Fold each of these.
Amino acid sequence: MDTQPTPASLARALAGVLGAGEVQSLARLTGGATKATWSFDWVGAQGREPLILQQTPPRAADLAPGAQRPPKLDAAQDAAVMDAARAAGVPAPRVRHVLAPDDGLGCGYVTDRVAGETLGRRIVSDAAFDAVRPALAAQAGEILAAIHRMPVGGLPFLQRLRAADELAIYAALLRGHERTHPALAWAIRWIGERLPREERAGVVHADFRTGNLIVDPAQGIRCVLDWEIARIGDPMHDLGVLCMRSWRFGGAGEAGGFGSREALYAAYERAGGGRVDPARVRFWEAMSNLKWAIACVRRGLAGTGGEGNVELAAIGRRLEEPLWDFMTLATAKE
């Protein structure tokens, strides 16, 4: 694939992949600091079909040999998880084609394009979503219950990560950048002293949050995006991520900015997700704030020097937000 492909060259390559037909209305979508997402219409034998091209760059070699990375699925694995999710009744993207080396498009896949909104601030505050917003927490609970019931037999590549594993990986990532930060050091120690005992495990999306959900003003949640860091772990992890203040986008609801924890938890249990342990959810909310803070450090440093990357540098400046949220959770009365 060209270093800076033009829309025309992408359209030609897509036509070669999809067969007899024509690519129309190809446009790069905004958002995403590392991936390239293109929207287009495919006009072929079935008529006009709205599709998405997702291109994922190869992972940077920024760790010492043998060092453990956070989970990051390749395109074929990502597609396999989405297929398994759909088979389990989860509204995930329908994969049309996984890119091969000779497709000339790099790594990634083509999926159906689902209509709706992903911008968090609009979902939690725009009047267009007023009618559906009260139902979103319950919908999220039902979807998470379905994710956590997914069979794992056909997904042998998913890493099994306990809370202690997550902490070890992210603490090592921070040490690798040789950055000393007293608040991060205290947060790592706090988490290490409160690791929950092992209970049940299941498929965990690990980034289930407002911004990764396609929401329709009439139907609610229509699709769950961004499965590339899925793993096997504690299901309470997903509920904790959804409740992080960073992903409420100014909304009042503690669940995603759009609803209450109580509505989320009750729907999850009704849908067969199992008993919700609120304290365990709070632990994972705190852990996820620590991980996001460390990710801000890493992305911020990746966006400095040389040509740099303004978006990555801007993410780095957000470090204090998840740190503040972590401290709020850690110092709250239990």
Amino acid sequence: MSHTAHIRSHRKPRRSATTSIAVRAGVAGGVLSMAAAGASATAFAAESTTQTLELPTLSADLGSQVAESADAMQQAAANYQLQAERDAAATKAAKQAKADLAEAKKKAEAKKKAEEARKAAAEEAASRSAERATLSASASASVSTSASTSSSTATGSAAAVIAFVKAQVGDAYVSGGTGPNSWDCSGLVQAAFSQIGVDLPRVSQDQSTAGTQVSLSNLQPGDILYWGGAGSAYHVAVYVGDGMFVGAQNPSTGVVEKPLSYDPPTGAVRVL
């Protein structure tokens, strides 16, 4: 027995032809499959890349549409603002119209009241005129029946002056007023003395020096009282006796009869 009879051979067993062919076919098939897969992947990748990189191109028409859209939005905003301004103006006009209507009603009411007051004053003035006529007639009768010549004439004239000024009590005071229903102080005094033919100056400064200066302790009815200095008096009235005077005092009181203590005069002049 040979000493190598039980040692296995190191030579590889030979493959059969069928096995080699199958292996080769498998290898070839795998290679082809891989090639096909690679080609498909390459084509997909190429297609995907092409689709991703295709961006829309901003054409002239599209740019024009965008511009028109922006103009339309701007015009719409301008229209909204204009409408808001018109609404605000309409609201303001409505408020002003309401205020004007209220003012017109107020003025109409004031006019109505003024007309009513005017009518009432006219009626009162007519009543006073009748009273004045009665008093004047009474004064004239008193003059004609006086016993003494010089002193009674003065007394009678003074009575006529006093009757006239008392008949105006309640009339309104108006600066520059000379009657018949409104007076200022010197206008009333001048009108009173004109009833007996005595022509006095128009203003109080001149009336305060128109006659003989007399003491306030020696007053007689018909004397002219003045306030302020002689020649610079700012107010005059008529002394009516019994410590009373009648004068057109101010716009608040009008023509009133008051005691000397109400507003003590500065001096007096006698023209009768």
